[in-house]
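User: Can you help me understand a structure? I only have the sequence.
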Amino acid sequence: MGYGIMPYAVDVNVLRSPHKYAADPDDFLAWIQDRHCTDDEWEAGPTRQALRELFYGEPHTGTEGHTYGYALKALCSTFGSLRDNGSWYPFGSGWPETVRNALADVGVKFDPEDLMYSGPPVPLPSIDDFPVIGHVLRDELRPTFEALNAADLSPIGDRQVVEAITELHGWMRHCVENDYDLVCFYH
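Assistant: Let's start by predicting it. Here is the structure, written out as tokens:
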């Protein structure tokens, strides 16, 4: 087992006010809570309280930031789609740097660590450990996506790196073509 990135294509505007996108917000929230929540704030998952607060845009009252991080992940799972991540889960500690360097070698400026360390797209309490959250908004994705469209990956000698770049390009393609943002969770 290892750590990796779970990428979601999702509209960040929906994540900022999820309750506005449900015909019956209370019933929809109950359904999401039943699918994703734990009542133990020390488990790796959202609590009902954290999910409710994010869903309705209420002030955060919990003390364990990870429950809010996992609540955001539950909302991304509900309102977005998890993209294929076989080249990104699991991976070793130097993998993002290896991919970043290969991208630079073919003229593409993008740091995969932004997928992990740029922070959540909505305000959350501080998370001391996992999940680590990053996001790239759709307007920021387009230039990298276009650079990848034009890039010649043949000089990259490592097949696994090429596969990771191709997978990343696919995430971006899906987001650009469907007007989504990319929100990623690292754990």
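Now, to help you interpret it: The first helix runs from residue 12 to 16. The chain has eight helices and four strands. Let me know which part you'd like to focus on.
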